[in-house]
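Annotators were shown the component list below and the corresponding predicted structure, then asked to write short factual statements about the assembly.
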Amino acid sequence: MDHKYLNKMLSEMDKDLASKGMTRREAMKLAGLTGAGMLMGATNAQASEEETKKAPTSATGKIVIVGGGLAGMSTAKRLTNMLTNPDITVIEPEELSVSYQPGQTLVAGGIWDIDDIKYKRDDYVPDGVKIIKDKVIDFHPQAKELTTVNGTLVKYDYLILATGMHLDFERIKGLEAAGRAMSSGNNSRLLKAMGDDGVTSIYTAEGAEKTWVEMQKYIEKAKNVKKGDKKIQFLFTHPSTPIKCGGAPKKIMYLTNARLKEAGVRDNAELTFYPNGGAMFGVPEYHDAIVGQFEREGFKWHYRHNLVEIDKENKIATFDAKWQEKGPYDPIMRDFEVFSKHEKVRVPYDFIHITPDAVAPREVGESDLGSAKGWVPVNKETLQHIRYPEVFSLGDVAQVPMGNTGGSVRKQYKVLCDNLVAKMQGKKLEAKYAGYTVCPLITSIGTVMLAEFDWTVKPVPSFPLDPTVERWIFWLMKVYALKPMTMIGMLKTGQA
Amino acid sequence: MELKFEFVIYDDELDTFILDENIYTFTLDDEQAKTFEVLKDGELYLYNWFKDSKYFIDWIKAEVYPDAIGKKIAIATINDIAYLKFYFFKVTSADVFYDYFKELFGIIEESDWQDREEVGEEIIENLLVKRQELIIELKEEQEQEDE
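Structure shown to annotators:
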């Protein structure tokens, strides 16, 4: 990012802000003082009041938290603030479970190093909280107990499920050997299965690092494309399941685009997005903005394409492409039926970024705590299990629509803690999650569109600015402000 | 004021609704006509008004399905207002029905990746409950209050 570019961005930002009656200084002040908090979900004045420390309560009970990632550890910390005699145990086998996952995109784009996102679980265990470095393999909710891999039987009065999700690479033919991965932990099996020839995924820390290596390799190849040669094909997929941060598959595409432009070889490459769904984003306003960005950047895209096979030897990606056809007239319903059709489409690639299907951990999905789809069925507002009132869940494993981001967790963990303590006190569960989600959509090196929305499926912007416009100020937040907000505000203090 | 009614008959054994293709005419008095004008845009309010009205049930028992005590029926249409979607929705039904039920049941799609089939299944799951609420069981003595 040279000075000329920065000055251009600053000038663009000044014009934008001036139209809203703000100076850059005022905007930065707003961003510096409250922006990160807003970015992580504190969207109104209520948020600051909410932060006012309440007196701890003397409610008692043994609380077990399964999962020591952002959701689990932040919840543990906040509960220690809320209870005078907390009895909390976290069960987490991975040493790097609290690593900063939102930074994986930046690692893959060559902006951060992998060391910028690696954090040790043991540095984030709140004082007074017990840690069991083991994995749960069996839940017995009727008896309020669970079993770990090493055979430890753990009893609880209250259970919080924050296991996160698994990345189902093994579902893709050609990547069966990858097995199921998690964003943190040892993913050498996955990396080996992907190989070193253009197959990438930012969904693990090491995978993000490797994506940057592969991206540079294929940018170099783009430099050698001669006039009349075939362009280097960069493919980006988006699967058929809920995923961590729905914007991430596009972010890595935008960053690849930025790096190609930086190298002066954008014209030698073709970037194509293959989403399994029929839109770029669930919120129409953001969908329209993204389509505009795709057109501006010369991206191609094909809706309703789901990656089902990778032929690494011949460098062919196979998609299951779906479409709808008008069916016969239904005389009873008095309208035409609609039929879904599908066929296999083979696409040659040079570089492919895979966003894997996300699935619930088997031990959760196959237990009485999991739903038919495996996720933990909770009341989407109170986060309490629909069958077991002493069980709560949050984060990626909770069956809550549109809630797989750190910003959602920031809202959820407060609701969960309030409701759990209310349950322990025999009171009514009054805290409610409204579905807030935030996705800082990186559209280039230096610009971010801050997509904030909730279950109204409408933008809920925290700033008095057009939420569909890409801005440098949000880039600064993404790169500089969000990490301390997460690692200190949520994990270390349980207050943010 | 006259209203044209169509009905569906619920088959307990098959757990399905069968459309009665006959059209029945019901006459409203002035007061009832005024209430109809108020409720006609509130689809399910209108349905429940009739369902809970003794004179309406008495009319069904006397003129529509005489000697049909124990029968389970539901209203299929009232003039141009159709409730057919509640009884005959399928995963292949037109998009307009998906949109209606998504709003009615507060179904929030996981986002743009969710399959039409998956949403359809969720609608049908919700409809299982809703259909039971719409059924009018013809009993010897109805409990409905006269409006």
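Statements collected:
1. Chain B has one domain: 2-137.
2. The first strand of chain B starts at residue 2 and ends at 11.
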